[in-house]
Amino acid sequence: MALLPILSFPDARLRTIAKPVEKVTDEIRQLAADMLETMYEAPGIGLAATQVDRHIQLIVMDLSEEKDQPMVFINPKITPLTEETQPYEEGCLSVPQIYDKVNRTSRVKIEAINLNDEAFEIEADGLLAVCIQHEMDHLNGKLFVDYLSPLKRQRAREKVEKVVRQREKVAVKR
Ligand SMILES: [Zn+2]
């Protein structure tokens, strides 16, 4: 197991479009395990491979209170099940310390593959629906700040750069 460095906004690598996973190998299973460890450590509730500079369609998530229900989505597809949208205050491990409301479809169908290479399908609403749409955006090179006004996005960029500089200083001292 290993902690992976997380790319932060406005890193251009976050704009890469992820390719489908051709086969679920041990290497993919290891990457998913490392991504889960990185996500728990951060701490966060979801992480897309794009954020750790691996450009394949792989998402990990854990929305449980106890952090004991890891979910892995490989080659996910989502289909809206309603035209209704819900606003939700989102954050992102690649945009640290920035939170803002984004409107997303409130109910979606998720089709994906698991780590045993088996296809599965679930209907999602609430936080799971929000989170899967947020993570799917990462696989398409999109960030939640793209939905905000240019002014808010600029402020987010400045704040994130400051946070990253501070983290680097702390890392050097260690
Ligand atoms: Zn994110």
From TrEMBL:
Any one GO molecular function term: metal ion binding
The record's keywords, sorted A to Z, are: Hydrolase, Iron, Metal-binding, Protein biosynthesis
Recorded catalytic activity of this chain's protein: N-terminal N-formyl-L-methionyl-[peptide] + H2O = N-terminal L-methionyl-[peptide] + formate
Q: Spell out the catalytic residues.
A: E135
Does the entry feature the keyword Hydrolase, yes or no?
A: yes
**Per the UniProt record, which EC number(s) apply here?**
3.5.1.88
Name the top EC class.
hydrolase
What is written in the cofactor note of this entry?
A: Binds 1 Fe(2+) ion.
Q: Which GO terms describe its biological process?
A: translation
| One Pfam family per UniProt | Pep_deformylase
Swiss-Prot/TrEMBL cofactor(s)? Fe(2+)
Q: Which positions in this protein are listed as binding Fe cation?
A: C92, H134, H138
Parts forming coiled coils: none
The reply to whether Metal-binding figures as a keyword in the UniProt entry is yes
InterPro entries to which the protein is assigned, alphabetical: Peptide_deformylase, Peptide_deformylase_sf
UniProt family annotation: Belongs to the polypeptide deformylase family.
**What exactly does this protein do?**
Removes the formyl group from the N-terminal Met of newly synthesized proteins. Requires at least a dipeptide for an efficient rate of reaction. N-terminal L-methionine is a prerequisite for activity but the enzyme has broad specificity at other positions.
Q: What is this protein called?
A: Peptide deformylase
